[in-house]
User: Fold these one by one.
Assistant:
Number 1:
Amino acid sequence: QVQLVESGGGLVQAGGSLRLSCVASGRTFSSYGMGWFRQAPGKEREFVARDSWSGNITYYADSVKGRFTIFRNNAKNTVYLQMNSLKPEDTAVYYCNAQRPGSPAAWGQGTQVTVSS
């Protein structure tokens, strides 16, 4: 099973930007659809963004559309989440997710993003 390691979280002021990275182990990264989810304190984990295995199709939660961008570099086994115009309500632990038919979904350990007002 693919293993995922996120990085890039931190503390940023409202209106600022962060770029999260998720590095996947193994040689089958390009066959996975990759996604980002987040979980704020006291709330359930929610979908943020994902792409298709080809990276050509992307999907976003309405709350981040126009501000966040998911993109990948298959040569580096890495998927990114560029987050612009951050808001305090974006504060959460962000998790990387990998999915493909016939394999269990994989999750990273999470990276904390805190947006101060």
Number 2:
Amino acid sequence: QVQLVEAGGGLVQAGGSLRLSCSASGRTSSTRDMGWYRQAPGKEREFVEQFNWSGIRLRYADAVKGRFTISRDNTKNMVYLQMNSLKPDDTAIYYCNAASPSTDYWGQGTQVTVSS
């Protein structure tokens, strides 16, 4: 089992920045990729950005290109999402994800609200 706990969400004005964090514990060695997803009100959960534990950035959504950056600290089992130039469309619950070959693990999510 892998446990994920997100933090860092909040209310910010358009153009502002937030840094989300995800603390991973448990059998993290069983996971291959880490990433962030988000779900806006009335919409399906969508992919944001992903990398593997070697730090290789695998992919990111076009909507966040040039604005969001994923990073990690392996010594602390932490994953971060730096979000700059935030837009009202970025308003959503943001979820940390850890993927093993057979299982996806999710955190409880952290709310990000961007006001115009």
Number 3:
Amino acid sequence: QVQLVESGGGLVQPGGSLRLSCATSVSIYTIYAMGWYRQAPGKQRELVARLTNRGRSDYADSVKGRFTISRDNAKNTVYLQMTSLKPEDTAVYYCNLEIITGNYWGQGTQVTVSS
């Protein structure tokens, strides 16, 4: 059974930083890609950042230069380091896993950027 456990969300002031973590029960070496998506109230879920097994990373234009996706193979964990946070970054952030059997989602973690 595929499991994704997210952590690291919370309330932060504009300009602040947060790091999200997503730990999986699946070996990192069997993963095609892992990514972070977000969904704000009344909006569609959108890609934030994605990292392939070959090390290629893609980012939404709105977060380029502020967010960094990375992974720790030994811990089967992917991270999203978020800096210079803005109120418009407020959303539920979801971890996504792409493996041979399909796509899997975490439960989501709330990120709120507000003064």
Number 4:
Amino acid sequence: QVQLVESGGGLVQAGGSLRLSCAASGNIFSINAMGWYRQAPGKQRELVAIITSDQSTNYRESVKGRFTISRDNAKNTVALQMNSLKAEDKAVYYCWIVTTGVQYWGQGTQVTVSS
């Protein structure tokens, strides 16, 4: 079994910052990609940022220049530094990993941005 434990969500004013963290544990042989998705009320879940095992990154256009994803392969952790937060960033953020052909999701952490 693989477990993903997220932390770091909360309430922040527009323009502020939050840092999300996710730790993967359990029967993990290797993690290929790690990333963060988000889902706002009434909307589909969307990819925010992804990072591969060789540290290559890709971001949703709307968060480029504001969000930074990072990972620690030795600790099986992934983080998302979110700066200059906007009201439209409000959502439940989910940690996501892909191991050898299997993907796993965290339970989600709420990010609320007040204007």
